[in-house]
Amino acid sequence: MCQRYSGPCGMFSGSPAKAVATRPVVMNSELATAVRERIKITLVLIDNHGYSSVGNVSEQVGCEGFGCHYHFRGPDGKYSGDVQHHDLGKICEGLGARVLTVSSLDEFEKALIDARGSAETTAIVVETDWHERVPGYSTCWWDMATAEVSEMPAVREAREDYVRNKVQQRWLSTLGTDEAAGTR
């Protein structure tokens, strides 16, 4: 929670696929407390109807983005039914925050200027496409171990890819350490 001080306080919540987080998560109780204590917060909520960034990683390791979409169960018993919409703006409004909903960069820029000029805690809800993601997981290597044992062919293939790429892993080193000298 932001403590009383004279500077601005910003928070970011959601799947940070398109933004840099100043703080990764805000709890509903923190938002309610900020409103009650009249602590101004500008909260940017990215609503991609699930966990897009995590879903991308899940898909990369062969797990099909399981649990990362907000869907009802379909007739097949899987989460293949209709989208389960969570109205994040109404939740923030119910906690006392002023809410601005945007769907374009131009609208976001205007909402951010508006929020900065307001004395109230403001939530800017940015609805995005679940499939619009930051390229990167497929163009760089991230040490996210894939299951060694699986019945899913896609997971087994992802494991082989992981093992093949693991040998190329570069270690972050700091000057003056054994790693920098090449002795690990």
UniProtKB/TrEMBL annotation:
Which named protein is this?
Answer: Thiamine pyrophosphate enzyme TPP-binding domain-containing protein
Under SUPFAM superfamilies, the record lists: Thiamin diphosphate-binding fold (THDP-binding)
What InterPro entries does UniProt report for this protein, alphabetically? THDP-binding, TPP_enzyme_TPP-bd
Tell me the domain of life: Bacteria
Please give the Gene Ontology molecular function terms for this protein: catalytic activity; magnesium ion binding; thiamine pyrophosphate binding
Annotated TM spans: none
- Tell me the lineage of the source organism: Bacteria, Bacillati, Actinomycetota, Actinomycetes, Pseudonocardiales
The source organism is Amycolatopsis pithecellobii
Thiamine pyrophosphate enzyme TPP-binding domain: from which residue to which, for each copy?
28-125
